[in-house]
Amino acid sequence: MEVLASMETHGYEQVVFNYDKVSGLKAIIAIHDTTLGPALGGVRMWPYKSEEEALVDALRLARGMTYKSAAMGLNLGGGKAVIIGDPRKDKTEELFNAFGMFVETLKGRYITAEDVGTTTDDMDIIRAYTDHVVGLSGTSGDPSPFTAFGCFRAMQACVKHVFGDESLAGRKVVVQGVGNVGYHLTGRLLEAGAQVYVADLYPDKTDRAAKLGAHVIPAGEVYDQECDIFAPCALGGCINDQTVEMLKARIVCGSANNQLLEERHAETLAERGILYAPDFVVNGGGLINVSFELAPGGYSREQSLAKVSKIYDILLRVFQVAGERGITTARAANLLAEQRIRKALEQKRIYRPSA
User: Fold this and answer.
1) Counting runs of H as helices and runs of E as strands, what totals does the chain give?
2) Which of 70, 247, 302, 337 has the smallest CB count inside 10 Å?
3) Could you say which of 21, 49, 68, 80 is catalytic?
4) CB 233 within 8 A of CB 200
């Protein structure tokens, strides 16, 4: 992979490779764009098959965070970090100590947080070595309930757009991946009267969801289910050449990042009459929540929930733009985010003399 060529093509600012001998840390921090503010994005820990796979994931995720921050109306840029390792086997205090030290060297250009494979406890360890971390146990805490709430509000917007009524009662929803976000989403859907079917690679996760009242199906059968909503809540790339033709859903709306393996898959979904809710809009709730730790007045759960709820309105605006311009919903969401970044670049700077 030609890293610098990829950075030039997609406008990345910085990629940092980090290694620590004592802990065995192998991490990559990617900063995509800081036009709107410092790059905020979680640190993902995953047993990547290769360093190139980890790099590609970091780059894609960082770029998605730029668009997510812009779409959510936040004064933040996009960044992401990945740690190569199995979060169920390879976590140590020394590992996150080292990662925190590397984050500190960036002096606030990158702010880290929880993501797949990491927890608030991990963030608390990182906090001992840098102030540039959010999602701490004493403040906003676990962002997954807020991501799930935003996804739930996005689903309401989707069924409003497709069926004319935002109620999810009686709707069949297939949730792919019931980790923290998928689990909280399942709970909200069941409370709303939806029929929820769940699948995950780990039986302990589906067992937990089943106790809430969800129906468990094999992971390999999620694409074959006739349903109102298919909710990808695991890893990215789940909508690809093979799966896009298998889907029997009316709507795709989930919390996973980078659900489309390639942008052209949004066109295929549209051609098949399947409404796609752009993932970086749907899953913006967690980012919104941790961003309130950086607010001048300090963290407010009530204000955070109120802002997350507006994902409903943002998504309806995306659908409106897509319809008016005859473009895919994915392109419409990108367009709205890019417009905000461009306006920030073009806006006249006002000289302010020092006191």
Assistant:
1) 13, 12
2) 302
3) 80
4) no
Mean pLDDT of 219-227: 94
Is 13 within the bounds of a domain? yes
- Dist CA 294 CA 108 (whole Å): 12
Q: Are 145 and 125 in contact (CB under 8 A)?
A: no
Q: Are 154 and 311 in contact (CB under 8 A)?
A: yes
Quote the pTM value.
0.88
Type of residue at 254:
G
Residue 89: active-site member: no
Domain around 8: 3-61+76-127
Question: In this structure, is residue 347 part of a structural domain?
Answer: no
In terms of domains, do 208 and 315 share one? yes
CATH (domain of 222): 3.40.50.720
Give 3-state DSSP helix, strand, coil % of the chain, rounded to 5. 45, 20, 35
What count of other Cβ atoms lies within 10 Å of the Cβ of residue 98?
23
The pair of three-digit structure tokens given for residue 51, joined into one six-digit string:
């360093």
pLDDT per residue as tens digits for the range 296-352 = 888 999 999 999 999 999 999 999 999 999 999 999 999 999 999 999 888 766 676
The answer to the question of residue 14 being in a domain is: yes
